[in-house]
Automatic annotation (TrEMBL):
Protein name, UniProt field: ABC-2 type transport system permease protein
TM segment ranges: 21-41, 85-103, 124-151, 163-183, 190-208, 247-267, 304-323, 348-370, 402-422, 442-461, 468-489, 515-533
Keyword presence, Amino-acid biosynthesis: no
Keyword Transmembrane helix part of the UniProt annotation: yes
Biological source species: Virgibacillus natechei
Keywords: Membrane, Transmembrane, Transmembrane helix
Domain of life, source organism: Bacteria
Signal peptide annotation: none
Amino acid sequence: MRNEFTGTGLLTSLAFKRERIKLPIWLAVITTLVTSVGVAMNDLMPTQEEVMNQIVARAESPAIRLFDIPAAGISVESAMLMRSSILIGIIIVLVSMYTIIRHTRQNEETGRTEMINSTAVGKYANLTTGLIITVIFNILVGMAIAAAMLLNDFQMEGALLTGFAFAGMGIAFAGITSIAVQLSQTSSGAAGMVTITFGVFFLISSIGDVLGEFNRNTFAVESHWLAWLSPWGWFGQVYAFHDNNWWVLWLFCLLFFTTVLIAFYLIGKRDVGMGLFPAKKGPAFASKMLLSPIGLIWRLQRRLVFSWLIVMFIFGMVIGGIGNEIRDMISGLNNNQLLEMFGGNPNVVSSILASFVAFLATFVAVYYVLTLLRLRHDEADGYMEGVLATAVSRVRLFMSQVICASLGLGAILFFLALGAGITAKVSTGDYMFLTMIETTFYQAPAILAIGGFTILMIGIVPKGAIAVSIAAVLFSLISGPMFGTMLGLPDSIQNISPFTHLTVDQSGDLDWNPALGLVLIAIIFSAVGILRFRRRNLTF
């Protein structure tokens, strides 16, 4: 006789073996990142006065509070968390999400679950295995973060609380993912649901912080109550190294257990391989558009494109909406300060908004790479073989994927700029749409270069293309101008990122020569990758 958890131990042992390389690498990456940021912060702000100036400047700006967690007193530790939490948090959430998906929905898609369930395995065993692996990983991440902070001589209680808060957020999103894999019939659909959920939570938290107030007596930002509606907002409310609110960790636990109970309940409401939101049956007669590879690829990618498009449009609207706040902020500066900070640029508000929009536009590189890697997934899963058995050539199929991905990239960047332009006009009364368009599309050459590298990897090292390409896009974001300077990375490392070469001077003028160079690199990489793909065997 078996219960619903029978076989969990054996499956967990197998899962540890599958994850013996991936998760330790991510653990090492996060630990190295935290250690590097700690060292860089100590070097950048050697005196208490510099620490205070940095924190006050960032905490008093509603625009910067959009991306920072709330300030929590005057300390290097607080400054570090304000600037780096978003990057560390995104990595932890993504790793937790994909670990759960890999051991649940992906196993169902590949038929592994059906084979496993033919043995003495309970119906909750697969999900429980994924949760055990993910929870243990997050606990180790939390301990590693705390250890990395202690190595930088940070205060012990705050370091431990920070580590457990990051772990709590990863565990909470593991619970949210466990529901998504019950709702969606595909791995990509589940990943899209969790990504959108994280984006909404981040947006709610950011609005709560922007609407909050900076208290000059405590040097802490008192967030609006909206921040409490988001797990990302809870992370900021622990006020590590200041109030040290340990009780907030219970909220992560409560969310995790609630979502897991819901997920277990939903497992009994569906069949293996199916989702509660099943894929819709197509019409009786297919559209003529599906007779072409570009029509088929668009049909498969359109949900991902629309998801990114909506999220970026909303983020753009939020950024544009704080234009009036920025105008109020700079109104207190005298002419000398304006000249020193902005080089005499007469359009300071639009320049600041454009810099925030450009920062968001760099993350669209993740969409572009994931969309191109769909080719590699189709090749490994055998779907591509069926398409190539028709009159479609390899080059035509590859080019169709590149064209669809590039059109999606252009649409996402356009709607990001449109959202920012609309609310900036409402907020400030100034027309900034063209500035936003120019800024967002200025990031496109760097994104295309990263995409070209992905195409090259698919052509020459198909089995390692996914891992190498994802590592490349993350490295480009981390070592780029937004985070590379903060981490204190040497120029030789920062120059590897294509985003580093897209420069804007203080007057707001863009240098298009490096952009043309990046486009040329993208074309060369893509051509070599496609030609190599045309000549090699399909690899499963």
